[in-house]
Structures are given as structure tokens and as C-alpha cells.
Amino acid sequence: MPRGNASQSKVHYQGKVDDFVIMVDDIKSVQNWKDDRSIPLAHVVSGFKIFVTHKHGAQNAHDTASKQTLENEFGTHNEDECIIKILEGGTLQETEASERQGPKNETMGPRQAH
Asked: Tag placement on the chain: N or C end, fewer CB within 10 Å?
């Protein structure tokens, strides 16, 4: 059975100095939040962590954004406020993770008779 066959949703925000990415539960929850701001952010984002890609786009390696980076881009280092600005001004992206094939338990040793 293939494993890892799941979709990943994120919001990519292209800033003045860096690109920022936050992971979200799904695109529909972001759209619902934009229509109804009474929905808590915890129902929209998958962890309150903001990533920076150093102007390499949303598909590249993600590093955690420092407070100074957030301060320079958004005028605040409060992560909740930064997440709201990213959700408002970013682009929604959904990618399908490729399924993984291969050994399911390598600790069992070779399964062939020698």
C-alpha cells in the first residue's frame, strides 16, 4: 500500500525582502476564514510557525523566520498579526505529495532465501 499520498496546503507571501510561507489545514478553511473572521486562526493554520524561503519561492527549503525578519517585513514581530497579513496578502497553494514505495520495515532483514 502506498504511503505519504496526502495533499499539503500553504500560503505563500512574496514580501519586499523575503518570501514567507505558512502551512494551513486546507484551502477551504482559509477561504471560510476570509469570509468570516470570527473563525479562530487555530482552525485555519497548521501550527503557528512562519517560514522564510530567502526569495527562493514556495517550493524551496523553509527556514523559521526570525523576529527581526518579521519586524522588518510586517512592522511587528507578533506572529499572530504576521500570520493574518500573510493570509490576507498571500497566494494559496496546494500540492499533492507523491506516494512512497519501498520497504516497509527494514529491520526485518532480507526476505529472500539465500
From this structure: C
